[in-house]
Every structure is written in C-alpha cells, then in structure tokens.
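Hi support team,

I'm filing this because I wasn't sure whether my run with iron/sulfur cluster finished correctly. The job status page said complete, but I'd like someone to confirm that the output block is well-formed before I use it downstream. Pasting the exact inputs I used:
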Amino acid sequence: MGKGFSASTIKSWFQYRCERKVRYELSSDVELAAIPIVKDVREKPWAILGNQFEERVVRRLSHESSVLKPSFGDDALSEVLTGAFLRGKRPEAYAAQMNLRPSGPASFLEGTGLYLNRNLADLIRRSPSATYPGRTELTIIDVKATRRATAFHKTQVAFYARVLQALLQEMKVSDTSISRTGEIWRIKDDGSASSDEWQVEAFALDPYIRLVDDFCANHLPEIAAKQVGVGVDRTFFHVYFKCEQCSFLEHCRSAIDDHNSPSTRDVSAVAGLTHEAKRSLQRLGVTSVGNLATAKGLAQAPGISWSLSRRAGLLINRAASLASGSILRTEEQNTYLMPPRIDAALIISVDHDPVDDRIAALGYRRIDHGVIQNEVIKVARSGDTRDEIAAIVDVLAALIADLTAIDTHNEAVDGDDDRSVYAHILFYEPSEVLNLQTAIGRHLEDERIRTGLLHLVRLFPPDDLVPEPEFRGVHHLPATAMRTVIEQLWALPVTVAYDLRQVSQAVFGRDDPRAYKPTPQFERPFSSLLSIDIVRDLRENGEVRTTFDDVRNDVADRLSALQALTNWTLEQNRQATTKGKALLRLSKRPFRFQATFDPLNAVDLDVLLACELLENRAGMLDALINLARPAQRRRDSGKCFANLYFRDAQKKGGKVFIQFDVPIESQSAELNAGEFGLILTDDDPDNRLNPALWPAFTCRIRPPSNSSLAQPGNLRLEMPRTIFEGPLFQSVLQRNARNNWFVDKAFFDVNTDRAARFLSYLAAGENR
Ligand code: SF4
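And here is everything the job wrote out:
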C-alpha cells in the first residue's frame, strides 16, 4: 500500500532531522498500533495555542479584509470554492484552510510510490502580480504562534508552494502564478500570544523550495522504504534534547531508559552524541553504551569525522561513567571558567517562554559562606512586556543592591584580602544567561533599567551593545554557567543531557535532599527548566492545574540544587588543590563594579577605548581558557607543539637557538615563524596558566634558513639569553631534561595601555 504524507511530515524532517519520525508519520495510527509503536496522541498545548492564535488572526483579518472561509462545520474549504478562488471567480482577497491536494499524482513525487494527504494552507492571498502586469499572484501564508519564524516553518510554506503549483497545473489555470515570496504571520514583537495582532515575516521561497525538492527526491523514498513491522524496525533514530516534543518519545526512550542495564542501553543515551556521530559509530558496530565505553582507539578509527575523532575521548569517558554508574574525571585538568574562592554566591535562575519569547520566571538567591542572605523569586503573570520588566526589576534590583553593598565594603577594606568579599554569579544553563541578556536588551528604553539597573546592563550586555571590557577579563569575569564547568571536569552517569535534575541526582544520589527532585508535573526528560506545557497552561488557563506558588517552589528547589552543586565543586577543588592539582583556576579579584564607560550613552571615543580594552581583556581570557585545555586537545586544534624532544641549544650573542624534534602528531600545528606571544614550557599548569610567569618562558619560532627547506619534524626556536639562563627556565630545564617540551600561544599585549592613554587624552580634550 502506498504511503501518504503532508506538509507536517516535511516540517518534522527539517525540525528533527529524524528518519524514524518521518517513517512513522508515513504509517497510519492503526499500522503503528499493530507493531506496537506507542504514539502520544494528546494534543500538545502549543498546538492548541497555535490553532487559537490562527483563529484570532483570521477573525481579525475578516474584519479588515475579505476572507473566503470553510462552511460552518467544515475544517477545509470545499473543492468548488477552492476552484473558484484559484480561477479568480471569487471576490475575496484571502482564502483560509484551502486543501491544496491535486486529485492526480503530483509530478514532483513521480517514482517515489508516495501520495499526498490533505494539505491545508492557513491563508492564500490573491493579488495583481507586481512582476507580471495583467497576471494574478497567489501568496502562501502560514500563521504561527511564535515570535521567530524558523527554517522548518519556511520549508512547510515552500512545500505548499510545490503542491499548489501541481494543483494549478491540474486545473489548467495559466494566468496565475505563485509569489516567490512566502509569508509567516507571527506574534508581534511587542504583542503577546493571546492577542489577535500579527507581524508579517516575508522570505524568499526559492532556497526553501530547493531544500524540499532535495528531500522529496533524495531522502523521502529511501526513508519510506525502511522496513517497520512486528519485531522489525530498520529506521535510524537518535534520542536527543529535541525529542521531548515528539509524540514517539515514549517508544524511543525505551531503548535508553532504566529498564535496560546501563551497558545494553542504546548509544543515544550518551550525552553530547550527535546524529552524525551515532551513524559513524553504527558503521563501526558501536551500538550500545557498553560498546562505546570500551571503544579504545576510536579516535584513530578509519573513516570517522574529525569532530568525532576530537570528541572520542570525552564520549568514551561519558559512556564508561554511564555503564559503571560512577562519577569519572574527564581529561581536562582544570577550568578557567570558575574561581576557587566564592565568599558570596549569587545564584540566578531564568525560565523562558519560547512562545511569547519572554521571561517566564526569575529567581535570585545570595548565599554568604553557606548562609542564605537574600532570596527573591518572581513568576511573570503573563507574556506582556510590563510583566517581564516587573520581574526583571524586582528580582535583579536585589542582585544589584547586594553587589552595591559588596562593592562598598570592598572599597572600604582597601585591598585587605582576608576581609574582602569575593562575589560570583552562578547560573546553571548557559542558555539562561543568553535569555537574560536578550530580555535586558528588550527594555533598554525603560527608565528603571537605563538608570537604576545600568550596572545590570554592564554585567549582562545585550548583543548590540559594546560590553564592559573589565567584565570580559580574568579579574572580573562576573558569572559562570555551572553546567559547562561540570561537563568540562566530570563524566557523570546521566542520560542524553547534563540537566540539573540528572546531574544533581548523579552527584548526590537520587533521594538526597540536596538533589533537585521535581514534582511530577515539573519533571522533564532532558531539561530542568520550566516546560512550555506549564508556562502555557498557566498563561492560558490560569491556576487550574499549576499555581504560581508551585512554580515559585520549583524555582527555589532548583536554586537549592545549584547552590549544593556549587559547594560540591568548590569542595572537589579544595581536595584536588591539596594534591597540587587545582581544578578551578579563574583568579578573580574581590568584586568591584566596573564602569569604563556608559554603554547606553557612549560617544565614538568611548567605544574606541572600550574596544581597545576589550581586545586586551578578552584576548587574555581566551588565551588562558585555551591553555587550560589538555595538551592533546591543544595540539589537535593546531594551537600547540606538544611532546617535543630537546635536541640541542647553541648560544650566540644575546640569543640562544634551540632545536627540537617534532612528533608526527604535532607536525600540523598552526604556530608560525615570527609569531608573537609564544611560550616554551614543560606543560606544568603552574607555569602555563600564570600570565605573570609567561615572560620567563617567551620564545619565537625561527624561519627556515635560505639553505634549508622547512622540515616538519624539526622545530627551531630562539630565546633571549637572559630568559634561557634565568632561574625559572633553568629550573624547568634541570627537571625536564630532553623529553616533553611544549610550545603554546600565550598572550602579550604591549599596545593597549598606550592606546588607552592616548584615547583618554583625546576624550579629555573633547570635554575641555
Ligand atoms: S523521539 Fe526522537 S528519535 Fe524518536 S522518533 Fe521522535 S525525534 Fe525520532
């Protein structure tokens, strides 16, 4: 029997890139049930919201223009009305819910054995063609309850264009063409999902039509041919974070959940694995967590991509952790993303509603030496702008007030390190920081934020503002996303994702009170942020199933789990430090507000000065973050000559010329002759990660002499004699002898101070 499909299958492909989902959607519910494949048939809240938004928009459009709609009780326009509209025999400018399916086979599906199901376009507009005078043009419009039209929304419209073209050909309508511009009508930037107003996002259809054609010709027939039946399923699948919204999750999850012993779980369970990596592993016969945990030599396996080869060690480590149920250290020796001393931990949680694209809830807690000093949690009552600003002002004014007190205190103690307060802001997910920055960016015109919370803008500058340079530097980096630190340092027995629930339960134990244990309605498979279901339910239906207090309690629970994970990480660092292997290397100074310039009223010279300083501060931090990675990772990314063999050194005048043998793995390093800022060390992190010591290890690569061509197995360096004979380099030379030398790029900047002084002088002149 042939398989039918519609635009929603096209959208699925471009949204999930999942072969299995497409194949299952080509089967009827009866066929799936017979296998059996469990499908969640409950209507999703965002789908309900989408229908409601579309109804409101079409109702409003009907008042402003004329819309041909299905007869009462029908969900699609009749064939007769469709034909009349397309032939220009109807007076209306728009038609809603037109079934675009031609009655015969569509030419673009020739040879695929597939047929079209119903395809209902939200709206079609008929207007005189701007390109071809005297002809008519049809514009395809999709109404979406979203603030951001994505590529998969646009491919859906492109597919409608292909189907409509087939229908026009079948009807032999020759004086009408399809506009090459499609439209998504979405929620207005300054409106809300409950409104009936829309914003038009027009886009060129051609690139999306090419994607659709390629999918229909090259992928769809192959996917449709995959065998699925009782006891057999040849579809490729990979469970990842997006699967949360898929109706087949329960079915696919059965391959990775706790009912299977850890080693036999599908390899999808390993967090950070991509679709492409899973396909490569399958080709090598690595299909389970246990296979991957023991796949030594994977990085060198023939035919695997560079990216899988680079991440092989990390993925094997994670699989080993999952298989053994234990916490393992990664190959990363340390991280530059978190400081080792935090006297005042300022913990923030940010929940986001993707439909309204607004903050849904904000939480803040200050903890001094383990004692909670302050806590403010606010759940936005709606997706309205004023509710979002209220939440930001209420919660983050508390953060700024606490930082103001700390800044005043640190100024008063004037450098007394014991009495100074080291403050640090902590989020769990990196996406929370981005959502907060974007939210602040939406309200820069609001006086409460422009003036009262200007420091907040400096701490979390939106993308289009020049950031405060000092907050991008080593000494004042204000915030850390704990998930990144944990992912860098530890492999944990978690499935698919390092979300707060799984991570805190892996670290403390499932029933430990320090772990985040959400109530059932808040639990999500691969994320611990508020689900779209909860947010939309509260906003659409009020406090029927969930109350605002429930959400506040959930935010507080997550703040507690983040607090516990922060303490645990600091304690792990203390223990590692006693063994001389510190994990946390960010050497921050006691907190002070930084205000190089006013980001909201910057003149040209301010911006120039800020950019100059920014290059310096961010350059130093980037260099340290790179140097904190293990030598093998630095080498594989071309940023390090690793494991060099010291052949000989010759002193000539004020210089020393040193020759090294370069092992084959290091011969593609991208460090060149004459490059500034290189250091020659034994890879000891106390030397490599201490900018104050870099001048004692500085060196330069010599160009090959005229008589000799460059030999990749040979590296010639020069070093000032004073440095070579200095006590630090000599002590390393004595200790390290000939093996295992490393050349890395550090960061030296001699110009910034001078340029900054000059720009400040010019700025002072402007003000005179
Ligand atoms: S749950 Fe994920 S893997 Fe399974 S069908 Fe859906 S998208 Fe594909």
